[in-house]
């Protein structure tokens, strides 16, 4: 029973830390040319050189499938992404960055990376950062096969 309580406390601490960080990052995005949600899609696509199916993209974006579809439609209208049919599956849609989307992702990404370095790297030592990454990777890997969908992206 003590292990269950420890797991609950660890989860609560992790969730609260993530919430505090995300609130700070959302504040950072207030002055950016794209929202944090749009940046999340741009960043994820930047790690998928040949594009991503909409359903695979959804595995990495914290939005419902209909909300993501509407967001991608708006992003296409803004010239940030291009949607096309998947040549291997006529029912699927592939989303790719446009040159404009790639340029905005890089520019905003530099500022966001600096904020991450400040907010996360400024709070933890190199050793703690390595431990945090290893633990997060281990938790994520443990969820594979539990109904969680995963998409391979280039590191």
From TrEMBL:
Record's keyword terms, sorted: DNA-binding, Transcription, Transcription regulation
**One Gene Ontology term of the molecular function aspect:** DNA-binding transcription factor activity
Q: Which residues form a coiled coil?
A: none
According to the entry, every stretch annotated as the HTH marR-type domain falls at 7-141
**Looking at the record's lineage, which domain of life comes first?**
Bacteria
Example GO biological process: response to stress
InterPro entries in the cross-refs: HTH_MarR-typ (IPR000835), MarR/SlyA-like (IPR039422), Tscrpt_reg_MarR-type_CS (IPR023187), WH-like_DNA-bd_sf (IPR036388), WH_DNA-bd_sf (IPR036390)
Q: Which Pfam families match?
A: MarR_2
Q: What is this protein called?
A: Transcriptional regulator, MarR family
Q: What is the species of this protein?
A: Marinactinospora thermotolerans DSM 45154
């Amino acid at each position: 029973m003590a292990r269950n309580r420890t797991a609950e406390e660890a989860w609560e601490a992790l969730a609260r830390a993530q919430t505090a960080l995300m609130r700070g990052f959302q504040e950072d995005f207030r002055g950016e040319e794209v929202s944090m949600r749009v940046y999340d899609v741009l960043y994820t696509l930047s790690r998928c050189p040949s594009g991503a199916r909409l359903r695979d993209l959804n595995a990495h974006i914290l939005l419902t499938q209909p909300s993501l579809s509407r967001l991608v439609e708006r992003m296409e209208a803004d010239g940030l992404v291009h949607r096309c049919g998947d040549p291997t599956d006529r029912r699927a849609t592939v989303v790719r960055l446009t040159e404009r989307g790639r340029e905005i992702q890089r520019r905003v990404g530099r500022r966001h990376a600096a904020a991450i370095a400040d907010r996360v790297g400024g709070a933890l030592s190199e050793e703690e950062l390595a431990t945090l990454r290893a633990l997060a990777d281990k938790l994520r890997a443990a969820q594979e096969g539990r109904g969680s969908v995963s998409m391979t992206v280039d590191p």
